[in-house]
Amino acid sequence: MSKDASAEARLRETWNSCGYYNLVGMEVTRADESGSEFRIEVLPEHLQAYGTAHGGILAGLVDAAMGLAILGRAPEGEGCATVEMKINFVAPALPGPLVGRGSVLHEGRRMVVAQGEARDGEGRLVAVGTGTFQRIPAPAS
Amino acid sequence: MSKDASAEARLRETWNSCGYYNLVGMEVTRADESGSEFRIEVLPEHLQAYGTAHGGILAGLVDAAMGLAILGRAPEGEGCATVEMKINFVAPALPGPLVGRGSVLHEGRRMVVAQGEARDGEGRLVAVGTGTFQRIPAPAS
Amino acid sequence: MSKDASAEARLRETWNSCGYYNLVGMEVTRADESGSEFRIEVLPEHLQAYGTAHGGILAGLVDAAMGLAILGRAPEGEGCATVEMKINFVAPALPGPLVGRGSVLHEGRRMVVAQGEARDGEGRLVAVGTGTFQRIPAPAS
Amino acid sequence: MSKDASAEARLRETWNSCGYYNLVGMEVTRADESGSEFRIEVLPEHLQAYGTAHGGILAGLVDAAMGLAILGRAPEGEGCATVEMKINFVAPALPGPLVGRGSVLHEGRRMVVAQGEARDGEGRLVAVGTGTFQRIPAPAS
After folding, report:
1. Mutation test of the interface with chain B: which of C110, C111, C130, choosing the one with the most B Cβ atoms within 10 A?
2. A84–D132: do the CB atoms touch at under 8 Å?
3. Fewer CB in 10 Å around end: N or C, chain A?
4. Beta carbons of C81 and D91 less than 8 angstroms apart
């Protein structure tokens, strides 16, 4: 069951105001039935000692992209928790824009498998991953 | 070949001064032949919308713990890059201290496999993972 | 650089005659630039104690599908070795036909990341995974 | 809650008589509170085109070692299903004996995380992995 536009806006607002998204400067720009989209600008504060984005930044982006792809399809109020994720880092992420995208591979009754990726400003693949998520039913009203 | 104490101190200083470690407040406290140890205090700025540490924080900690375990055993000047990592999130990380630890599972000539974990202040396992890393030889002097 | 049809036929023949493929009754039916396709019939000898295909059968199918997708794009004589793979088992595989498919996500100079999946006779997703592979250059002639 | 010796023997017998174990010649020799142990002899029928054991054989061994480590600790009649597994192949497995071992990393109420490995006759690490498993409660009697 998909959300209406105002429910999607509430979902994005909830996540865009959380601590981690603000700390790293990450923003979800879409989370609907077709998947999720994120934006982040890689800045000096995201870099490890070799001058490229730390794995934590990319893993956080891919994790979030998968999670919001799941929530974008779920009834309003339903949550999800990452059980595990695996990510390949295929190219260094230099300072500049990154786009993250997530989509659902398989929806089970209690578990969902999703995939996510990050691409740089030229569309080059930087990281790609999959994850297993546990659904958290919306509290009964 | 292990490092002497001053080489280990230089390694820790290099990483503890990088952008990402400072942004998230993460510190490597040991990186020697036996593995690595990290500390971070989970703060409101690390949280996702459900009030627990975002996966990016835990993934960054485990990735770093594995990478520094590898560098702690490598000749000075050698680097490493994360090819891929997989992490299981087994308990929510609430605000408070976390300890990360990494160790090497297999050292190949070009690739190293490591494992890492994060535990909370009571020693409870929060996240556990493995990763594949590519060695980056020290530049010839 | 793609292969001509006879090189693709040689590639399929080489693999379809190896011990493991024969033991489990798995066959590669396509391995070209667009990816790979496999067939296997799940039989009683593939089952674990609960009556569904053992994870080893599905993992072997997905591993092979990824590896042959890589070889289907590589110059003749080039090989590849699985560095790691991760697979989600999303539905039980009951006795009957399975189709495996693989494709390349990222081709690096020394490493390739691929994805693979297995679907049952109704097209239902049974397993999905990603893997990291190391290229093995063709021996110089 | 651990099993008594006869319950452990029944567990081993159940699995050692399943189709897949017999097809590949794999045997569980221990499955108790401390973990599991398996034996397999790599034979020509297990090999891929390069003359080493196919990934499916190693993945099946590691998957089984993790699963039986979980069942070795569970009440009799409880089952488990692999949600996902990730395995690093760190050395080629040549024809000869392999030992598989599994142990539990984290036991949750519904999910368990385990690790497994395979070593050759000289004790050299060949493959190492982790997996997420779902508990299947014993049918009420």
Report:
1. C111
2. yes
3. C
4. no
pLDDT digits (tens, 9 = 90+) for B48-64: 999 999 999 999 999 99
Q: How far is B65 from chain D (nearest CA, A)?
A: 18
Task: Kindly list the residues from chain B whose CB atom is less than 8 angstroms away from the CB atom of residue A81.
Answer: 50, 89, 92
Q: Chain C partners of A106 at a C-beta cutoff of 8 Å?
A: 88, 90-91, 125, 128
pLDDT above 90: residue B140: no
**Closest to B76 (Cα-Cα) out of B26, B120, B10, B18:** B10
Closest CA to B94 of B130, B62, B122: B122
Q: How far is CA C72 from each of CA C11, C31, C66, rounded to the nearest angstrom?
A: 8, 5, 10
| C-alpha distance from A135 to closest chain B C-alpha (Å) | 13
Task: Provide residues of B within 8 Å CB-CB of chain A.
Answer: 14-15, 18-24, 43-50, 53-57, 59-61, 63-64, 67, 79, 81-89, 92
* Residue A58 in tokens: 């990319």
Domains annotated for chain C, with CATH where assigned, are 5-136 (3.10.129.10)
Helix axes A55-73, A5-16, angle to 10 degrees: 150
| pLDDT value at residue C61 | 98
Q: How far apart are CA C101 and CA C124, in angstroms?
A: 13
> What is the pLDDT, as a whole number, of residue D1?
47
